[in-house]
Amino acid sequence: MENPMVKCSIANCEYWEQGNNCNAEVIMIEVNAHSNKPQPEKLDGLPYDSEHQDSAGGITDTCCQTFEERTH
């Protein structure tokens, strides 16, 4: 199965591309309560954690851990 299209409006992210699309190979979405915690694993320099699970109360309780500020 191919990955679904991921839309993103954060234009200063390294993985943002025209049309508000995300071109990251791996996307890690986390609950806000964990947003400042270091991630134990990496794939191609992107942090992700495949060992734990959480529950979110709603959309405002989640954030994208894949964000990397664009430097160019």
From TrEMBL:
Q: Which InterPro entries match?
A: DUF1540
Start and end of every DUF1540 domain? Answer: 6-67
Q: Where is this region: Disordered?
A: 36-61
Bias category Basic and acidic residues: which stretches? 39-54
| Organism superkingdom | Bacteria
Q: What's the short name of a Pfam family annotated to this entry?
A: DUF1540
Name assigned to this protein: DUF1540 domain-containing protein
